[in-house]
Amino acid sequence: MTALAGTPTPVPEGDRSRRASLAVLCAGTLMTILDGNIVTVAMPAIQNDLGFSGPGLAWVVNAYLIAFGGLLLLAGRLGDLVGRKRMFTAGLAVFTVASVLCGVATGQGMLVAARALQGVGGAMTSAVVLGMLVTLFPEPREQARAIAVFSAVGAAGGALGTFLGGALTQLVGWHWIFLINLPIGAVALWAAVRVLAPEQGSGLGRGADYPGAALVTGALMLTVYVIVGAGDRDGTATALLALLAVALFTGFVLRQARAARPLLRLRLFGSRLLSGANAVQILMIATMYGFQFIGALYLQRVLGYGELATGTAFLPAPVVIGVLMLGLSARTVGRFGPYRVLLTGLALIAVGMALLGRAPAEGSYAVDFLPAMLLMSVGFAAAMPALTGLAMSGVRAEDGGLASGLFNTTQVVGGSLGLAVLTTLAARRTADALTTGTELLPATAEGYRLAFRTAAVIATAALILAAAVLRDRESRRDGGG
C-alpha cells in the first residue's frame, strides 16, 4: 500500500493533531452511516404515523440513496477543487440541518424532501473523507492503521444503526432517530472547524466542467433510481430508464475526453487497482447490505423477533468488526499483504452466506444465525480495510477526493443493487411457494434462503474477481495468494 502520489495537502503537525483529525473524520462518517441504517427498523412506525402507502414508504429510503449516490462523484471532485475541509464541514452542516427537518416532519412530502437533503449533505461529507485520510497518514503502516480505524467505524456503524433504530423507535419514537443527529452534528462541525488543517484546492477554474457535472450527476441519480425502484415498475420501463442512464454516462465520457478542463480525468480508471477494487466492492457490499436487510426480516418474520430484539441480535457484529479491525487488521495487512487478507475475508463472507442459506423456518438464532453472522463479521473486518487500501494506493494527491467519492459511490450502487436483487428474489420465491399451498411461515423462510444463497454466489464472484485483478506486485514477488 502506498501513499497518494503527487504534492500532498498540509498535514497537521504532531501525532495528537492527526489522531484528533482522524476522530473528526470518523465521527462525520459514523453519523451518515448510522442514518443510512437507522431508518430501516423504524419504517413501520413512520408508515403508521404519516400514512405512507407501501410504494410511498420506499421513498423515505430512496430519496436519500438517490441524492447520496448521485452526488458522491461530483462532491469528491469539487472537494479537490475548493478544498476538502470546506466540502467536509459544509456537508456536516447540511446533514445536521436536514436531520432536524426530518425529525420535525409532520407530512410525507416534508420527510421525503428532508431525506433528499440529508443525502446531499451525506455525499458532501463522505466523498472527501478517504482522500483526507490518506493525506494525513502518508506512511504505509500508519495509513493501514488509520484505514482500519475508519473502516471499523463505518462497518460497526451499519450494525449499530439497526440497534439504535429499534431502541429509539420503541422507547421514544421515530422522530428521535433523526433528532439525535443535532447534538452529534453540532459537536462534529465545531471539532472539524477547530481540528482539521486548512487546505487550498486547485481552484474551480481548473475543473469546473458544468456540462460534465450535470451529465454524471444525472446518470448516477438515474442509475440508483432504476435499481431501487426496479421491483415497482414493469420490465420495459426499467429497460428504457437503464438505457437513458447508459446514454448519459456515454455522453459524460465523451465530454471528459474532449473537455479542456474535465471534471473527471479518465486516466484515473487506468489504475487496475482502483478500477478492480471498486468492481469488487460493488459485489461485496451487495452481499453485506443484503445480509443486513434480509437478515433483519428473517429474525422478525420467521423467528418472531421485535424491533429492539432484532437490533440487539445484530450487536455482536459491530463488536467483532471493531475489535478485529482496530486490534488486528492493520498488523495482518502489514504482515501478509492486502491481497491475501482480502481473499481470506471474501472467502469467509461467502461461507457465512452459504450457511445462512440453510436457515429453516423453525430455526434458532444461536444455531442458524449467530455463527454465520460472526463468520461474515470476521471476513468483512479483514476484507474492507484491505480493499480500501488497494483502491487508494497509487492515486495522485490532486485526485484523492475524486477517488474517495468514486469508492463511496460504488458502495451505494452495490448496496442498492444487492437490496433490489435479493428482496425481489425472496418475494418471488415466497409468492411461488404460497401458490403451491405452502404455509406462510415456511414460504417466507424459503424466500429468504434463496436470497442468502444468491448472496453467497455474489460473494464468491467477488472472490474470483479479486483473485484475478487485484494481485499486487508484493504478492507476485513472494509467490503468495
General description of the model:
This protein is mainly α and 481 residues long. It has 2 domains: 15-208 and 263-478, Up-down Bundle (Growth Hormone, Chain: A), CATH 1.20.1250; 210-262, no CATH class. 80% of the residues lie in helices and 0% in strands. It has 18 helices and no strands. It has helices at 15-50, 54-82, 84-103, 108-126, 129-136, 140-171, 176-179, 181-195, 210-228, 235-258, 272-302, 307-313, 316-336, 338-356, 365-392, 400-435, 440-469, 473-478. Helix 2 (54-82) packs antiparallel against helix 9. The model is unreliable at 1-13 and 474-481 (pLDDT under 50). It is a multi-pass membrane protein. It is found in: Cell membrane. Keywords: Antibiotic resistance, Cell membrane, Membrane, Transmembrane, Transmembrane helix, Transport.
How far apart are the first and last residues' alpha carbons, in Å? 16 Å
Oligomer: single chain
Shape: globular
Helix and strand sequence: HHHHHHHHHHHHHHHHHH
Describe the largest sheet: none
Task: Give the % helix.
Answer: over 70%
Subcellular location: Cell membrane
GO molecular function: transmembrane transporter activity
InterPro entries: MFS, MFS_dom, MFS_trans_sf
Protein name: Disulfide bond formation protein DsbA
